[in-house]
Amino acid sequence: ELILAFESSCDETSVAVVENGNKILSNIIATQIKSHQRFGGVVPEVASRHHVEQITLVTDAALKEAGVTYTDLTAVAVTYGPGLVGALLIGVTAAKTIAYAHHLPLIPVNHMAGHIYAARFVKPLTYPLLALAVSGGHTELVYMKAAGEFEIIGDTRDDAAGEAYDKVGRILGIPYPAGKEVDRLAHLGHDTFHFPRAMDKEDNLDFSFSGLKSAVINTVHHADQIGETLSREDLAASFQAAVVDVLVHKTQKALTNYPVKQLIVAGGVAANQGLKEAMNEALAVHFPDVDVIVPPLRLTGDNGAMIGAAAHIELAKRHLASENLNADPGLSFAHA
Ligand code: ATP
Ligand code: MG
Ligand code: FE
């Protein structure tokens, strides 16, 4: 089974060829980060235009690298939400066109399901499992009773974890997307500020990061006003310690309420070194039977391969789209 998978929900144009949902033959990722950096975030119109320019080139490169042609394919898959509507539409249109022209089934994929199923490239998944999906737009604890069944048991009340990283990065003078650099600085500093751990002690599985973000921003502004210069390393370390504490504690609470053997950490923020270290340490002590799966770097950010992995599950269930498939910017797991 060979699936050609498209991802264009945000600022990466990516096309992959995936065999049997767990083997990557190619995974071409064209990132637009440079074009958005001077605006401090993703500009939807700019994103759409880049996707249009890149999609054919990236598709050709993916087929070439995989050494396959359209006639070798089993199906075409595409992210149809959630994401930026204009960006999603480019991938959806490309996938629909290819599926129609080559008489191939079209598989609609939920972007967040893709982030979670990226773990299938690490090892086979065993259900039930828990996923901590942490990305630019989402922070969710997801319970999966079986493949294709997603129950959101915890969610952010305001900012997503990645969004908080990007906003805090901005006040530290780091260009978008700031997560990786904040992570690096954090390892050079110490948690000297003791920022609030919102909702940490509350008896639910939800998150809140906007208070933490404001605390960092206020601390920096106050220091500026009195002419004091704070250590960027300590600010980053203190912010990261607060984020990681809450993510790890809530995950432990979820594991207590929903016993599973595998925990997947998914999405762009899963690349975070501090999070990986703290999660592995805490679970080794408190949940030694739980296997923590974090996809490798190239698969935690947006990419086509993860969409191919998710599509394999959908194809097995014969969840196919018609040629009328439309982008759904607010798509939730209820329709995954
Ligand atoms: P969504 O998946 O919710 O639709 P998105 O696709 O824009 O949003 P991703 O591409 O999954 O998000 O992740 C990007 C986010 O990951 C950015 O906010 C970025 O700052 C963050 N990120 C990347 N690397 C790291 C890191 N090492 N530490 C923390 N955050 C990181
Ligand atoms: Mg991105
Ligand atoms: Fe994403």
Description:
- It comes from Lacticaseibacillus zeae subsp. silagei.
- This protein has 336 residues and is α/β, with parallel strands linked by helices.
- The protein has eleven helices and ten strands.
- It has helices spanning 33-37, 44-66, 85-101, 111-117, 161-171, 179-186, 210-225, 232-257, 273-286, 297-300, 304-316; strands spanning 2-7, 12-19, 23-31, 75-81, 106-110, 129-134, 139-144, 151-155, 262-266, 291-293.
- The strands form two sheets. A five-stranded mixed beta sheet has the order 3-2-1-4-5, sandwiched between helices. Strands 8-7-6-9-10 form a five-stranded mixed beta sheet, with helices on both faces.
- Helix 5 runs antiparallel to helix 8, helix 6 packs across helix 8 and helix 8 (232-257) packs parallel to helix 9 (273-286).
- The longest helix has 26 residues, at 232-257.
- The relative contact order is 0.19.
- The chain binds adenosine-5'-triphosphate, magnesium ion and fe (iii) ion.
Give the key terms.
alpha/beta; five-stranded mixed sheet; 11 helices; binds adenosine-5'-triphosphate; binds fe (iii) ion
State the helicity in percent bands. 40-55%
Give me the Rg, rounded. 20 Å
Tell me the total number of β-strands. 10
Shape: globular
> What would the average pLDDT be, to the nearest integer?
97
Structure classification: alpha/beta
Q: Mind describing the biggest β-sheet?
A: 5 strands, mixed
Percent of residues in beta strands: 15-25%
Sheet with most strands: strand arrangement: 3-2-1-4-5
| Separation, N- and C-terminal Cα atoms | 21 Å
Ligands bound, unique: adenosine-5'-triphosphate, magnesium ion, fe (iii) ion
Main location: cytoplasm
Protein name: tRNA N6-adenosine threonylcarbamoyltransferase
Organism: Lacticaseibacillus zeae subsp. silagei
EC number: 2.3.1.234
